[in-house]
Amino acid sequence: MSALATVVGIGTSNFGKQSLTAQELVAVAVAEAVADAGVDPRDIDAVFVGNVFNYPGTAYRALLAAGFADAPIVTVESACASGSLAVHLAAEAVRRGDARLALAIGVEKMTDEMAGPIPTDPHDIDAAGGMVLPAVYAMSATRYMDRFGLTPEQLAQVSVKNHRNALANPRAQYRGDFTVQQVLESREIATPLTLLQCSPISDGAGAAVIGAPDAGFAGPTIRSSRYLSARPWPDTTDRVWNFELIERASRLALGDAGLVHDDIDVVELHDAFTIGELVTLEALGFFPEGGAGRATQEGQTERDGRIPVNLSGGLLSRGHPLGATGVAQLAEVVWQLRGDAGERQLSDPRFGLVETMGGNVAGLSGNGCVVMTLERGADR
Amino acid sequence: MSDPAVGLRPADLAVPEGDGIAIAGWRCENGDYTTLAEAFRCPWCFGTMQAARFAPVGRVWSHTRVLVPSPVRRPPYTLAYVDLDEGPRVLCDVPDAAVAALRVGLRVRLAVAGDLLTVEPVAEEAA
Fold this sequence. Notes:
The complex is a heterodimer of chains A (380) and B (127). With 380 residues, chain A is an alpha/beta fold. In chain A, 35% of the residues lie in helices and 19% in strands. The longest helix of chain A has 17 residues, at 322-338. With 127 residues, chain B is mostly beta strands. The interface between A and B is large, with 39 and 43 residues.
């Protein structure tokens, strides 16, 4: 089947609390991506930027400083999925022929804006009752423990795995060789979630040069990409928050690509909190509902397991600069498919999957979700 | 970004009903879709949403004890999502006295405590 687009070049900043401004973060990521692509930046026809919290105009200011002035710039927001939505729109633009080369950027300078947990939307009644993001996910965790017998140790194993994966990622915000007990004994945030089960406040940026299909570009290809918004939640099922949205996007993306789960060699998914990785693995269809905790405990999502998940360290350890996260996830899968992932490199992966879930408007099962599949593509 | 001054108070969802309270919200004219947030059209069928009142009894869907601050509350505090028998899911505070009994599926009645909606466990037959 034909691809939507080719990822011609990729770049990211480091992740974590940084002295760099949003403009500087973007400049670092764009410079790496353009150099990696080996294209003339003046040939880029359109720019899509994912950003959530920063001041209006941040994208234009950052692109000007990074050397882009006349290509049309579109800023998009879908909470944590903003960066992957920018990639999705760039891929659609080149597929439609609106652009031969497009640039997708994600950026977030969070440490200037907030400390502590990300609040929920103050326009929702839940925020007035004290709801914060960790508590939203904690509600899912408590429900999963009651319904499926998920254990605290299984939850903690997600954190152990992702922090250990990040040991091999020099761009990661945090890394460490923790035990399950250490994860469980870290500071309680919203029961049953502890500090090491929560993604950090981060600064960072990512950039991807996206080329038109069949235009002779080399590099991994985006084989399918779906962006969906959520249906009302709760619904008539007993699914936890986010499940139905991820499940729908995943079915469509895998169907478009003509792939089944066994084809996928590497996954980067939205582990903002440990329970998020487990729910997402099930909603994506890699494990039956209620089965991801045990599978994680058995090592099935480890680097040498049945399906390696979040080799970058994921949001939990690489960091979670909201608007940048989707592009950072794409970067890890691209590096893996190109054989450029250094100490994290898998043996000969052919297909990868990226999933990013964004938003927490009360009454919706999330705001938006991107699921994207990639294939190794022509050697560069 | 984290502006708590948008004027929302969970307690404002409670309206007088007989000797107690009801929870005010919205119900689709055509079906079962209910919500607490102001709504004009049903997202399932585009039917007209009508103001509705719901009996303040239901079951705990899930719960968590929060140990980090929110823009409007100091920790620690305990939250529960309660599925009302007549429809919507409501975020409630759980007073310390009720925490020991708290579990998924617990039968509760909603009450007003200051700016918040709170829960008190009730016997199965009482609800």
